[in-house]
Amino acid sequence: MSRIGRLPIDIPAGVTVSVNGREVNVKGPKGELALTIAQPLEVSVEENQVLVTRPDDERESRSLHGLTRTLINNNIIGVTQGYTKGLEVVGTGYRVAQKGSSVEFALGFSHPVLIDPPAGITLTVEGNNKLTVSGIDKQAVGEAAANIRKIRKPEPYKGKGVRYAGEVVRRKAGKSGK
């Protein structure tokens, strides 16, 4: 039995979880999220807890058991607390500025880079080199942060670029003179 999959998920106050066939809808104070469950698994709501069960010990059902439980738990955490991902802009002349709901980056290119947030994602700028990506969907927050980081990844010689908050960039030694 999956150690993670067999754990029940407690439903906090103010959150409603409804199961309609293969669709699990989670509604909370911050919004509403939906998840489609893979075929062999079953989800039930009993006594303020969500239970994920699998019918057999086939390889596919075992692999999906813990994943499904974690995805439902992430949705419950998302509609109650939300998710945030921090980004830092490092480099001389590199900066970020808020332009309405979108964000403008100066990253050493010949032009400024303008990023519009996807649906359900909020971009906030603190200072001129810190950016916070926030939302209720963990996967969407991570993907939006990864797409912003992809514009100018931290390079290994000087460490310049867009990096996650707290990310350690492995530095390389430059050319050594004779």
UniProtKB/TrEMBL annotation:
It comes from the Bacteria. The keyword rRNA-binding applies. Residues 11-82, 90-164 form the Large ribosomal subunit protein uL6 alpha-beta domain. GO terms for biological process: cytoplasmic translation. Transmembrane segments: none annotated. GO terms for cellular component: cytosolic large ribosomal subunit. The keyword rRNA-binding applies. GO terms for molecular function: rRNA binding; structural constituent of ribosome. InterPro entries: Ribosomal_uL6-like (IPR000702), Ribosomal_uL6-like_a/b-dom_sf (IPR036789), Ribosomal_uL6_a/b-dom (IPR020040), Ribosomal_uL6_bac-type (IPR019906), Ribosomal_uL6_CS (IPR002358). Keywords: Ribonucleoprotein, Ribosomal protein, RNA-binding, rRNA-binding. Part of the 50S ribosomal subunit. PANTHER family: 60S/50S RIBOSOMAL PROTEIN L6/L9, LARGE RIBOSOMAL SUBUNIT PROTEIN UL6M. HAMAP family: Ribosomal_uL6_B. Belongs to the universal ribosomal protein uL6 family. This protein binds to the 23S rRNA, and is important in its secondary structure. It is located near the subunit interface in the base of the L7/L12 stalk, and near the tRNA binding site of the peptidyltransferase center. This is Large ribosomal subunit protein uL6.
